[in-house]
Amino acid sequence: MKTMLAFLASLKLAVALLLLLLLGLAAGTIVETRHGAEAAGRMVYYAGWFLGLQGLFALNLAMSLADLFPWTKKRIGFVIVHASLLLIFAGSALTYFFKVEGSLAMWEGESASIIETHDPEGRVLTSHQLPFSVQLDDFVLETYPGTQRPAGFASQVQITDTDTQRTFPARIWMNHELRHRGYALFQSSYQQTMGREATVLSVAKDPGQTVVFTGFIALILGMLVVLGTRISQSRDRAAFGTKAGGQALLALILLGGSMAAQGAETDLDLLRRLPVQHDGRSMPFDTLARDLVWTVTGATTWKGQDPAATLRDWTSNPKAGAQEANIQIGSKALAAKMGFPAAATHGSFVQFVQNPGLASLLGEAHQAKAENRPMEGLAQEAMKLEARILAMRAVLFRDVVRPLPVAGDPSARWDLPPAVDEASLAALMKGPRLEGWPTAEAMDREVFYNRLNPARLSWIILLASLVAAVAAWRRKSPLLDRVAFGLLAAGFAMMTWGILLRWQAGGRIPAANMYESMLFLAWGVGFFAVAAYAVLRNRMVVLNAAVMATLTMALTDLLPMDRFIHPMAPVLAGTAWLAIHVPIIMVGYAVLALGLVVAHMQIAVTAVAPGRVELADRMYDLLYWYLFVGSIFLVAGIITGSMWAASSWGRYWGWDPKEVWSLVAFLAYMAILHAKIDRMIGKFGVAVISILAFQTIVMTYLGVNFVLVTGMHSYGMGDSPVVLWMALVALAELLFLGWGLWAYRRNRPPTVAVND
For residue 548, which of 512, 583, 518, 517 has the smallest C-alpha distance? Predict the structure, then answer.
């Protein structure tokens, strides 16, 4: 019996269960991609075998708590963590067995009191009678200025209690629920037909949510207590220069001053600062030009020309613009289908509108879309090409440059000018400022941001930091250490400044697309490196942070990504959770990416220089800190995302592939940390497996969007070249690990134990 109890409380069982759970979760996302969400729930998430694994894991947690007794001060953090996980399991069980949820759909003037759930074909699966009725008095849809794109929608309702007949008005809108008699009502979606409007509300009653959220808070608290205990036990301190930060800021100020100096204005300079309305917001002509040149050509500039000059030429001479091969085709297969030469990458507007091959593909694509059928690869490419053609059509028909606000109506679409030539538009700028225009300072600031390109400046500064860090490492120079850290801090300051400028221009936190998330990823590397160097006093922090930050910012700047500030979906707008969740999760990714760099360094040193044990041990110590702190940020990101989902949709967990893979990543790192404690793997093994574990981060960040192509976080780019790059990187990692293991075994003395 004692042997059985010891096994149930063992770390070996915990690690095995963590691995089995993460494999099951990963399999669930694959099943969903191939067979749909309902099949994934039936075969994996709610299957008896998976529920059994969770039950066994909960038992393991409970037994480990008993095994830790008596709970000393040193162990209190571990006790809180394991108890909080049990609390989360208990709350999840309450949700699983007792939660009531469904949707409530009403046209204006109608009332309803029965919520329903439906299958993918729309058939009613369950229904539930509410103790009150809801009447829709008015549905309000707001759009971004000058567009039909929803900016937000709200339902003005009357709530009537069945028992008391008491009636009161209420307003429900995105991220602002109504709670009544234990039920939460959320604005989910809407319908518009023949001038009529209907609302769709999500309704939920979840007795387990409060228990789960209490467990969430306790989990973060417990992990922070464990971190504090680890820090208090650490005595590894190194020298640290305090003047570097001030020197970096001074350099930044001088750099900013020199970049801001302006020469004599020309008509083009006036034109680029002209306020126009585009994509749901006001912006300078310069931003409009950059967006359109990118959209049409697939490049940031066309033929080396300033984007503002390119758009000016297209609008002033539409005949030449229509005949120029300036619209990106997209793929060689699509070019061949349309009869273009094999080497053709672009075509003209005239060529496309008269192309029968493209017309045939678009007909098939639109029919598939109308019938809600999946599109084949070429049909998807044709739809993307059509979007580029329509953008160029708007340019050629002079329908994009709209600088004239409608007096008294800030949400209306701005008007076209009488003429769109450069002289006329520049003259408009020279005249009095029109009512409804943003301030000249706002336009100048955005033009400055566009021309400055903080992302490029950041990685150039960070590259200099990397060079200095490598030189400091080789020469063991304290002066170069300070220079490297000063440049790292300057690069971080430049990233911060760029994010703030982008935030000001867009009027929202820049965290809504892939480009902006990569900005935060690089920013997270810099933020954590500066903080970690202050705490750990470890010169390796600067070296590996410079490597990762330079690489991330260079990719952000150089990869062909949409870098423009677009309006956000209603669920992202008007909520503080976006500003909380995204930075936390990206800092977590950044810290674990730093760990990835250290793991590579540790493997290389251990494999080729087995005598440098002290250096490898210092790298291992730093790797452990990165893995532990990164895991804290990772689970904090999962928790804040869960709370955001609960405030928006009424469910804190929906088995979306992105949240599932976030959990897979967290479980992978927990398996490493627990295996390390039990000495199931040694120092070299931790480095090797941490590199493998980082592939779950890659899958979470990119794979869900580009490989699985499913779920609310998907960008719908399953045919993207990102998939090929992911495969090549994974192959390179396997080759590196194979070499590292071979060299490690070859160079390891026979007397050295496996667990070093």
Answer: 518
End-to-end C-alpha distance for the chain, whole angstroms? 33
Segment among 10-14, 46-50, 366-370, 589-593 with least mean pLDDT: 366-370
What is the DSSP secondary-structure string of 601-641?
Answer: HHHHHHHH-TT-HHHHHHHHHHHHHHHHHHHHHHHHHHHHH
Other residues' Cβ atoms within 10 Å of the Cβ of residue 428: 19
Q: Which fold has domain 100-205?
A: Tick-borne Encephalitis virus Glycoprotein; domain 1 (2.60.98)
Q: Give the start-to-end residue ranges of the domains of the chain.
A: 2-98, 100-205, 277-444, 569-756
Phi, psi dihedrals of residue 261, rounded to the nearest 5°: -65, 135
What's phi and psi for 140, nearest 5 deg?
-115, 125
User: Is 404:294 a contact under the CB 8 Å cutoff?
Assistant: no
Q: Tell me the whole-structure pTM to 2 decimals.
A: 0.82
pLDDT per residue over 569-621, tens digit each?
Answer: 777 777 788 888 988 999 999 999 999 999 999 999 988 888 888 888 989 98
Pair 443, 272: CB distance under 8 Å: no
Distance CA 416, CA 419 (A): 8
The model's pLDDT over 177-218, given as tens digits with 9 standing for 90+, comes to 899 999 999 998 898 887 889 999 999 999 999 999 999 999
Instruction: Say if CB 465 and CB 471 are below 8 A apart.
Output: no
